Amino acid sequence: MRKVPMRSAGCWSIWRAALAVSIASSVAACAGRPTQEAIATYSAALDTTSTSARQGLFEIQKRELATINAKNANAILSAKPGNAHVELEAKNEIVTNDVLKPRLEFFVALSDYASALAAAASPEQATSVKVKIEEAGKAFGALGVAIRGDAANFPAEKVNSAATAFASIAAILVDAKLNHEIPKIVSSTHENLKAGVEAFKADLGDPSAGGFRALMNDATKRLVGQETILIGTFAQDVKSIGKPRLHDEIRESQGRIQALGNADMLLTSLVPALDEMLEAHEALRTPSVETTLSQVNLFLDRAEDLREAVNTFRAK
């Protein structure tokens, strides 16, 4: 696994400065206008959130598979024929591709929406605005279909409202003639976007909602139970395997449990970014107001926090 070094204060400053330069260059033609800077910053923050979240979800899937494989290989190699204490499933993957797909599509749709807003705010992209907006609409439309699938394991109490919200956003973006009218785009989509994002906040952040976070929580509990059985098996045979080997097995077992625990913790980092995303999106209804840029910068801070959390998780 590739090691991702933790960002030092200097590296953090360099990254933030580079982002500032990118934003500044995108609004150079309209320097001094808070509308342009707010939208460019919002688009950058939304893209950072989307990219970081997808990296984190891919890493969670990879870690879970590695944990399962290590656990099962250990159980198979260590179990003696007829040992009734080893009762582990051969495979119990939770984060399947079908489960991962709608979560990835959610963040892809957000990234496409960020591109659409950036295009609408930039005179240089006048010819691509309609295409960008339609692409975002199609992404939201596909998302509304994806979360309804049985294999998606989306929270049952949220799926209908979220699917309807995303379908509505798709209809607005694909059919409406919005062009460069940022306040109109934001006002037209905000309530539906809020409903959809709130549903994904429950899915990714609430272990009691029955979605992705609940699946990870259940996976951790199941793993703890199975690791207890495995360690119990070794403990019963401590005379033949020796105490050093038993201690090694306990340490490795705890590491496998911690790997899923770290994944669960990463999911909690998504919620603050999504909260600030909605607050900033609502503020963009009046993008020319100076306070709007302050709200958007708060979203950028949370996006950077998520980026750091994902990089730290991937480095462990």
Outline the structure in words.
Keywords: Plasmid, Signal. The model is unreliable at 1-9, 23-32 and 81-90 (pLDDT under 50). The longest helix is centred in the N-terminal third of the chain and has 45 residues, at 34-78. The protein is an all-alpha fold. Helices cover 78% and strands 0% of the residues. It has one domain (35-315).
Radius of gyration based on Cα positions: 23 Å
Shape: elongated
Order of helices and strands: HHHHHHHHHHH
Low-confidence stretches: 1-9, 23-32, 81-90
Please report the number of helical segments.
11
Number of DSSP-assigned strands: 0
- Name the average pLDDT: 81
Class based on secondary structure composition and strand pairing: mainly alpha
What portion of residues is helical? over 70%
Largest sheet: none
| Beginning-to-end CA distance, first to last residue | 9 Å
Percentage of β-strand residues = under 5%
When the domains are counted, the total is: 1
